[in-house]
Automatic annotation (TrEMBL):
<feature type="binding site">
    <location>
        <position position="783"/>
    </location>
    <ligand>
        <name>Mg(2+)</name>
    </ligand>
</feature>
<feature type="active site" description="Tele-phosphohistidine intermediate">
    <location>
        <position position="447"/>
    </location>
</feature>
<keyword id="KW-0067">ATP-binding</keyword>
<feature type="binding site">
    <location>
        <position position="759"/>
    </location>
    <ligand>
        <name>substrate</name>
    </ligand>
</feature>
<dbReference type="InterPro" id="IPR018274">
    <property type="entry name" value="PEP_util_AS"/>
</dbReference>
<feature type="domain" description="Pyruvate phosphate dikinase AMP/ATP-binding">
    <location>
        <begin position="16"/>
        <end position="285"/>
    </location>
</feature>
<dbReference type="InterPro" id="IPR000121">
    <property type="entry name" value="PEP_util_C"/>
</dbReference>
<dbReference type="InterPro" id="IPR013815">
    <property type="entry name" value="ATP_grasp_subdomain_1"/>
</dbReference>
<dbReference type="InterPro" id="IPR002192">
    <property type="entry name" value="PPDK_AMP/ATP-bd"/>
</dbReference>
<keyword id="KW-0479">Metal-binding</keyword>
<feature type="binding site">
    <location>
        <position position="780"/>
    </location>
    <ligand>
        <name>substrate</name>
    </ligand>
</feature>
<dbReference type="Pfam" id="PF00391">
    <property type="entry name" value="PEP-utilizers"/>
</dbReference>
<keyword id="KW-0418">Kinase</keyword>
<dbReference type="GO" id="GO:0016301">
    <property type="term" value="F:kinase activity"/>
</dbReference>
<keyword id="KW-0808">Transferase</keyword>
<feature type="domain" description="PEP-utilising enzyme mobile">
    <location>
        <begin position="416"/>
        <end position="496"/>
    </location>
</feature>
<dbReference type="Pfam" id="PF01326">
    <property type="entry name" value="PPDK_N"/>
</dbReference>
């Protein structure tokens, strides 16, 4: 097998094999740009190395062959005593991982060749500077010696010679530094710095391979969702020298501003330096514009090449270059990373310049980037040390005083952050009142997270280093910092960081735009808003998928509509039983006779009716899918342990409260080991039929009221958590009965499609039979993921998910991005068999995945009719649906 490829043998489309750096160096070579010659060792070799613990046996000879050609081309021998060739050895994976892996420069230098380099270049200082760089870089990355030891030695030498930086050290001083460095190597490794140039090269290649698996590289990949099994390529390139006197230097540059997307060339240049100095921040570079003055010819050439590269790649490029005695060399280019704002702006710029078409412009931005643009953000200029870090569950920036329960949040005159160990449905009012939510337990699909995302509220969950002391109303950080109720904290839902004190927040103009709160003038003036607006129009023109919203209140429904929703895909009715009404649900559960039950239900009916009228009005003319009650009843009752303790204490005092004792009995009766798998959803509807009848009646009467008011209500009724056709059939009969009853008494024709959620594997596997009865399906992928994997959606992220992510079992939580291989297969089966049974079956998804960009693309592929997501994700899903269609 071939593992090594000369630059001229590849091109930019071989990133899999050659890594981004290798592929783009090949491309630049083929474009005739001044690239120092070299070759790339493939990612295959790295994968073999990582699997076997040693390089493939063929590799040594293949490197020798390419090295010989390189030597012939340069007319120099690697590490020779006279005019030596030196090479750089650099990492480069398929997806760029800036600074995460190793690079070693000046390979080939030794005690003899250093004099040869001095003679050939005419500069002793340069030769010894290069040698000390090699030992420093090789020592720390290949030999694993603490980099601080080299830095300390260098600083000591600078002090000794009264120098203010490395540039002030002359050849003799650098000779001394090399001697010190060599002593450090001997001391740390028990052997001398390797003098054999080929041994240096082989060790460096191995070190780059191994650097694929350093801690920071793994963390970075997890964050960026880069698979752990790709491996890195290694490029070996003839050295050109930026440290060869004042007419030499090195720099990085961008063809446009990667932070804002503004046109113009941006970059940094550092005279008398080698590559790593710029990124490592050893000395402060000058802005690229200075280069025009310092080295006009090289500058002009660089501008020409950058324009050429941008035109060739038709995208923002960044480059690394070196100038050796006035001559420009290109060391690297890639399509540059950019902020979300820049991505939108540049896509539209390239579109307007005629370099790309609208489909490609849509391809240049992502839903994730749009989501980032939609959240208020902490002022990026602010630098502070976090007091804790949790799971970033709902992006944004929130500042407020810490409060420890819902009432305090609601009562607080100041903006507040609700701090809880975990949240329950009961915390909803607090979540609404607070600016943001911080919990020490729970993951991204925990209740707090789902609700917060739905409301566009900042949320950090699972900050498990926080000790929350509810009794004393404070929490303690790992460092022992105590934050009391009323103290101001700031939480960043994009990074999961928690800060003490206030950090400045800037609002998102993109949301203001979606909300319709920007004037034409303001819109014109903001290039990011302009770009977003244009690409949203393009996405809507192209998308096949409908985008509905998960919304339970008229306010949410209105917002969803402003954000472009085509209807409501999930109206969760359980949120309508909280707060004041919770007491009535308690009464319902405690009712001892049917008559008592009916009385409570009769009280609940007008309230539900009011809810539905509001939501139907807000979504007039568009479908509103209302889901019958889903959560287990015990969620409406007090906690078993707390109540037991309360009753026991009261008993001990001889003052038992009758009501509490009765309540305790009911709580015990309803207590389940696994409530998520217990009496909930359709099961609840079949066991307590009055509840469903009341809800359906409320829906039907709300529709009637809307019709009478001249509206166009389009309610649909959805049954949760069915496992098969029988459950659904029984439920549907009951629903029909009530609908007919209301139609008869009102004399109105009330049309409501009756369908079901598909959120259990058995439902997916028997979808054909279910579709015989159901008019629509909506995949509840939260529960479907939970029951397919057997992962508890409320517990996993704090417990074993970190280990799973670390071990690469998945690169992203399956609760966040749909597990296409497993859960996705169930979805495909259900779509296929459902449609086979009923051609016009309408199919959507309303789990959290409905707003996840990569999942949206999957749902488009398997032919769903729509996705449904929280109102704030609606624009994101619209954009992704458009992207999926082009
Ligand atoms: C689901 O399970 O995906 C769903 C939408 O229902 P809920 O999250 O309310 O259980
Ligand atoms: Mg569900």
């Amino acid at each position: 097998q071939r593992y090594v490829f000369a630059f001229h043998e590849g091109d930019k489309d071989h990133r899999d094999l050659l890594g981004g750096k290798g592929a783009n160096l090949a491309e630049m070579t083929n474009l005739g740009l001044p690239v120092p010659p070299g070759f790339t060792i493939s990612t295959d070799a790295c994968r073999r190395f990582l699997a076997d613990g040693q390089e493939p046996p063929e590799l040594h000879a293949q490197i020798s062959g390419h090295l010989a050609r390189l030597e012939a081309e340069r007319g120099k021998r690697l590490g020779a005593a006279v005019d030596p060739l030196l090479v750089s050895v650099r990492s480069g994976a398929k997806f760029s991982m800036p600074g995460m892996m190793e690079t070693i420069l000046d390979i080939g230098l030794g005690d003899e060749s250093v004099d040869g380099l001095a003679a050939a270049s005419g500069s002793e200082r340069f030769a010894w500077d290069s040698y000390r760089r090699l030992i420093q870089m090789f020592g720390s990355t290949v030999l694993g010696i603490d980099a601080a030891r080299f830095n300390d030695a260098l600083e000591a030498a600078e002090r000794e010679h009264g120098a203010t930086g490395d540039l002030d050290l002359d050849a003799d001083a650098l000779r001394g530094v090399v001697a010190d460095y060599k002593a450090i190597v001997r001391d740390a490794t028990g052997r001398d710095f390797p003098q054999d140039p080929r041994e240096q090269l082989d060790m460096a290649v191995r070190a780059v391979f191994a650097s694929w698996n350093t801690e920071r590289a793994r963390i970075y990949r997890r964050q960026e969702r880069i698979p752990h099994d790709l491996g890195t390529a290694v490029t070996v390139m003839a050295m050109v020298y930026g440290n060869l006197g004042p007419h030499s230097g090195t720099g990085v540059a961008f063809t446009r501003d990667p932070a804002t997307g503004a046109p113009g060339v941006y970059g940094d240049y550092l005279s008398e330096a080698q590559g790593e100095d710029v990124v490592a921040g050893i000395r402060t570079p000058v802005p690229l514009q200075e280069l025009e003055r310092l080295q006009p010819a090289a500058f002009t050439e660089l501008m020409r090449i950058m324009a050429l590269l941008e035109g060739h790649y038709r995208d923002l490029c960044d480059v690394e270059f070196t100038i050796e005695r006035g001559k420009l060399w290109m060391l690297q280019t890639r399509v540059g990373k950019r902020t979300a704002a820049a991505a939108f702006r540049m896509a539209v710029q390239f579109l307007d310049d005629g370099l790309i078409d609208v489909k490609e412009a849509l391809g240049r931005v992502t839903g994730e980037q749009l989501a980032q643009l939609m959240f208020p953000q902490f002022d990026p200029a602010f630098e502070a040390k976090p007091i804790a870090t949790g799971v970033p569950a709902s992006p944004g920036a929130a500042v407020g005083v810490a409060v420890f329960d819902s009432e305090s949040a609601a009562r607080s005159d100041l903006k507040s952050i609700l701090v809880r160990r975990e949240t329950s449905p009961d915390d909803l009012p607090g979540i609404i009142a607070a600016e943001g939510v911080l919990t020490s337990r729970g993951g991204k699909t925990s209740h707090a997270a789902v609700v917060a995302r739905g409301m566009g509220k900042t949320c950090v969950v699972g900050a498990d280093a926080l000790e929350i002391d509810l009794e004393h109303r404070h929490f303690t950080t790992a460092d022992g910092v105590i934050v009391r109720e009323g103290d101001t904290i700031s939480i960043d839902g994009t990074t999961g960081r928690v800060y003490s004190g206030m950090i400045d927040v800037v609002p998102s103009p993109v949301v203001e735009f979606f909300e319709g709160r920007l004037s034409d003038d303001e819109r014109q003036r903001d290039p990011v808003v302009q770009a977003v607006s244009r690409l949203m129009i393009a996405a809507d023109e192209h998308r096949r998928l409908g985008v509905h919203a998960n919304a339970d209140t008229p306010a949410d429904a209105k917002r969803a509509r402003r954000f472009g929703a085509d209807g409501i895909g999930l109206c969760r009715t359980e949120h309508m039983f909280l707060g004041e009404r919770r007491r009535r649900v308690e009464e319902l559960i405690l009712a001892e006779s049917e008559a008592e039950q009916d009385k409570v239900l009769a009280e609940l009916l007008p309230m539900q009716l009011g809810d539905f009228v509001g939501v139907l009005a807000a979504m007039d003319g568009l479908p509103v899918t209302i889901r019958l009650i889903d959560p287990p009843l015990h969620e409406f009752l007090p906690d078993l342990t707390e109540l037991s303790v309360k009753v026991a204490l009261a008993e001990a005092r001889g003052e038992v409260d009758e009501g509490d004792a009765r309540l305790l009995k009911a709580v015990r009766r309803l207590h389940e080991q696994n409530p998520m798998l217990g009496l909930r959803g359709v099961r609840l509807g079949l066991v307590v039929p009055g509840l469903v009848a009341m809800q359906v009646r409320a829906i039907a009467e709300a529709a009637a009221a809307r019709i009478r008011a001249g509206g166009d209500p389009r309610p649909e009724i959805m049954v949760p958590l069915i496992g098969g056709a029988e459950e659904f059939e029984l439920m549907r009969e009951e629903i029909r009965r009530v609908l007919d009853d209301v139609a008869n008494t009102s004399g109105l024709s009330i049309r409501a499609a009756i369908g079901t959620m598909i959120e259990l594997p058995r439902a997916a596997l028997t979808a054909g039979r279910i579709a015989g009865h159901a008019e629509f399906f909506s995949f509840g992928t939260n529960d479907l993921t939970q029951t397919t994997w057997g992962f508890s959606r409320d517990d996993v992220e704090g417990s074993f998910f970190p280990a799973y992510l670390e071990q690469g079992i998945f690169t992203v939580s399956p609760f966040e991005s749909l597990d296409e291989e497993g859960v996705g297969r169930l979805v495909s089966i259900a779509v296929e068999e459902g449609r086979a049974a009923r051609r016009d079956l309408v199919i959507g998804v309303c789990g959290e995945h409905g707003g996840d960009p990569s999942s949206v693309r999957f749902f488009d592929r398997v032919g769903l009719d729509y996705v449904s997501c929280s109102p704030f994700r609606v624009p994101v899903a619209r954009l992704e649906a458009g992207r999926a269609a082009v």
